């Protein structure tokens, strides 16, 4: 079997901690090129992975040997670089959030269809063992009717993880567009859609309270109503200074599922009859190198290419999760509940 030849565009933390190491250990992948506007950074990465170094991504896209690219760039560049890559006949794995507007996201999907190439959005929460197990339990009917949920993703902020620290693009509104909602909230929007179906309405309070000298959001609390009628909350925060929170709790007729809410058990079910069941599963990935585990995103993307099948998180899925975040921002501005299908195509 011929190896999938990959290029990684953008060599910041997400590329160096997730994409590149996971491509490296996949036996069906060869990393042939890396690209970053910081010459010293890309030179170091290229040497480490035995790849060619570039500072202009368009030169990378001209390489006929490249089959697929990872787009690991600031949010405002996701659409333009992804579309250029698709038009260059490359498959694309794009970091989240997919784009900064629905128009951009639609253009990305249209480019994928026109060029008959795959686009996958790097929403990794669907691949977490506890989340996969929870989906099976919910769909089996074991919990009975689902009543409510809460899902949270918070940590101390990207200055503690981004390769550029406090000067990172994450804090520049023109480059990031959104803060904690785009960094963390969109992951949880994708997860809750994966577990419970589509979101129909959103109400939100979105604030900048923990970080100075930035106008991007660092705290958001959203109320989501699902098409099924289930209501719950989604929280995204960069203000958790003493540790992170990446938990989800789902309340059902017959019991409650806790996901990633216990240091020893990734999934716990407390039944209303008093019975408790605890599952020890693969731990969720973290930004702590000691706790770093594979996200499975890379392997899934590569398999989709090799076996010519749709990835789990297609561009169509990515746009639906983006809609939740855009609806939250609109709700915060309008001080009204926003219906998902009513938001403007350009936010």
From TrEMBL:
InterPro entries: Gfo/Idh/MocA-like_OxRdtase_N, Gfo/Idh/MocA_Oxidoreductases, GFO_IDH_MocA-like_dom, Glc-Fru_OxRdtase_bac, NAD(P)-bd_dom_sf. It comes from the Bacteria. Pfam families: GFO_IDH_MocA, GFO_IDH_MocA_C3. Residues 4-123 form the Gfo/Idh/MocA-like oxidoreductase N-terminal domain. Residues 132-257 form the GFO/IDH/MocA-like oxidoreductase domain. This is Gfo/Idh/MocA family oxidoreductase. It comes from Halobacillus shinanisalinarum.
């Amino acid at each position: 079997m011929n190896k999938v030849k990959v290029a990684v565009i953008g060599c910041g933390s997400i590329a160096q901690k997730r994409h590149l190491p996971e491509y490296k250990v996949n036996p069906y992948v060869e990393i042939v090129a890396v690209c970053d506007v910081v010459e010293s950074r890309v030179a170091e990465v290229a040497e480490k992975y035995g790849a060619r170094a570039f500072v202009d991504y368009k030169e990378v896209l001209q390489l006929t040997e490249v089959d697929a690219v990872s787009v690991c760039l600031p949010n405002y560049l996701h659409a333009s670089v992804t579309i250029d890559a698709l038009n260059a006949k490359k498959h694309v794995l794009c970091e989240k959030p997919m784009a900064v507007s629905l128009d951009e996201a639609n253009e990305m999907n249209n480019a994928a269809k026109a060029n008959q190439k795959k686009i996958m959005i790097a929403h990794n929460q669907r691949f977490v063992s506890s989340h996969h197990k929870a989906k099976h339990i919910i769909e089996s009917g074991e919990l009975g009717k689902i009543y409510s949920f809460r899902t949270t993703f918070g940590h101390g902020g990207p200055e503690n993880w981004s390769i550029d620290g406090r000067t990172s693009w994450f804090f520049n509104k023109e480059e990031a567009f959104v803060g904690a909602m785009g960094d963390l909230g969109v992951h949880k929007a994708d997860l809750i859609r994966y577990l419970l179906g589509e979101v129909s309405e959103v109400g939100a309070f979105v604030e900048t309270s923990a970080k100075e000298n930035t106008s991007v959001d660092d705290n958001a609390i959203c109320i989501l109503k699902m098409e099924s009628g289930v209501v719950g909350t989604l929280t995204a925060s960069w203000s958790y200074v003493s540790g992170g929170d990446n938990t989800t709790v789902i309340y059902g007729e017959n019991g409650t599922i806790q996901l990633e809410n216990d240091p020893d058990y990734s999934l716990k079910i407390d039944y209303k009859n008093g019975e408790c069941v605890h599952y020890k599963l693969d731990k969720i990935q973290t930004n702590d190198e000691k706790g770093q585990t594979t996200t499975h995103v890379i392997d899934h993307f590569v398999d989709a290419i090799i076996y010519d099948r749709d990835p789990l998180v297609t561009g169509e899925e990515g746009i639906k999760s983006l809609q939740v975040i855009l609806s939250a921002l609109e709700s915060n501005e309008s001080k009204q509940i926003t219906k998902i299908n009513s938001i403007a195509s350009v936010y």
